[in-house]
C-alpha cells in the first residue's frame, strides 16, 4: 500500500515553546488515521503543518508525494481540510457558503451545483440548505464546515476535532459520512481527544502527548500489544481480593475490582468458582474490553485528560 503522508522528525515551537518535538508518522492510502491526544498535545499544530498553514521549524513533511515546504499551495488545492474553528459566513445560507468555497477550489457552473446538492445530501442538511447559517445549531455548522472541504472531491481529507461540542445526531451524520468516504477510497486523517471516536472510526492511530508521539500503528496491533488485559468483578464478598492463580494486580474501581492478568478468560472462571464456593453475591463479572484508554494509561502512567 502506498503512503499518502510522511512526516519525518518534525519540530515546531511558538516563541520558544515547543509544540511538536521530533514527530515522525506515516499514513497509508485508504486508511482512517486517528491522531489522538489530550488538549494542548499538539494536534492542531500538526494539522496546520500538514496543510502548509503553518511552517515547521525542522524535519520534513510529504503529503500525497508533495513537499509541504515547497508545494503548500498545491497541497491546499488538492487536500480537504476541516479546521477546528468553524469558518462559515453566518449571514449567508449553507448553499451560498458552499458556492463560495467551491469556487475558491475552482469548481464552477452546473458541476458545482451538482456537487453542492450532493454534499448537502451527504451531511443531511438538504432541507435547511437555503436557511442562513446563523440559524443553525453548532452541530449543523460543523456538518456544513465538513461539506465545504469536500467540494473539490479530495482524495485526502484532514479533519481537526470535527465533533467537539456537538449533538449526537450531528455526530452520527459525521461518522456515517466519514465511513462512506473511506469506502470510496478517500484517506482520512482525524484528530480528536475522544478515544471512543478513534476506536469506532479509525484503523490506525498515533497517540500524541506533550508534542511527542508516544506510539503509533494499526489500532488492533496497539490494543493487542499495550492494552490492559483484565477482569472486572463486583461482589460484596471481598474486602481484599483472595490469592488467585494468574492474577497480576488488583485495583479498586468504583464498587468493583479490576483484576489484571495475562489470560482473562481463565481468571474469570477462577473468580466465578471462588465466589460460588462461598455462595457470594455477584453484581458484575466480565472481561474488560481492551481500550485505548488503557493503552494511554500504560504508556504514560496517566489517564487521558480532558
Ligand atoms: N499560536 C500559538 N502561540 C503560542 N502557543 C501556541 C499557539 N498555538 C498553540 N500553542 C501551544 O502549542 C501547544 C500545542 O497546541 P495545539 O493547539 O496544537 O494542541 P491541540 O492538541 O490541538 O489542543 P486542543 O485539543 O486544545 O486544540 C500548546 O501548548 C499550545 O498552548
Would you mind describing this structure in some detail?
Helix content is 34%, strand content 29%. The protein has ten helices and 14 strands. The chain has 306 residues and is an alpha/beta fold. It folds into two domains: 3-224, P-loop containing nucleotide triphosphate hydrolases (Rossmann fold, 3-Layer(aba) Sandwich); 229-289. The protein binds adenosine-5'-triphosphate. Adenosine-5'-triphosphate binds at residues 14, 17, 19, 37, 39-45, 84, 161, 193. Residues 5-235 form the ABC transporter domain. Pfam families: ABC_tran. One of its GO terms (molecular function) is ATP binding.
Strand ordering within the main sheet: 6-7-8-3-9-10
CATH topology of the largest domain: Rossmann fold
- Main sheet attributes: strand count, strand direction, barrel closure: 6 strands, mixed
Query: What is the averaged pLDDT score?
Result: 92
**Ligands present:** adenosine-5'-triphosphate
Q: Give the class-level CATH name of the largest domain.
A: Alpha Beta
* Secondary structural class: alpha/beta
Any idea what the CATH architecture of the largest domain is?
Answer: 3-Layer(aba) Sandwich
Radius of gyration: 23 Å
- Uncertain stretches: none
Number of strands: 14
CATH superfamily of the largest domain: P-loop containing nucleotide triphosphate hydrolases
How many angstroms does the end-to-end distance come to?
Answer: 35 Å
The figure for the number of domains is 2
What is the string of helix and strand elements? EEEHEEHEHHHEHEHEEHEEEHEH
Note the quaternary state here. Answer: single chain
Strand content: 25-35%
Pfam families: ABC_tran
Keywords: ATP-binding, Nucleotide-binding
Domain ABC transporter: 5-235
InterPro entries: AAA+_ATPase, ABC_transporter-like_ATP-bd, ABC_transporter-like_CS, P-loop_NTPase
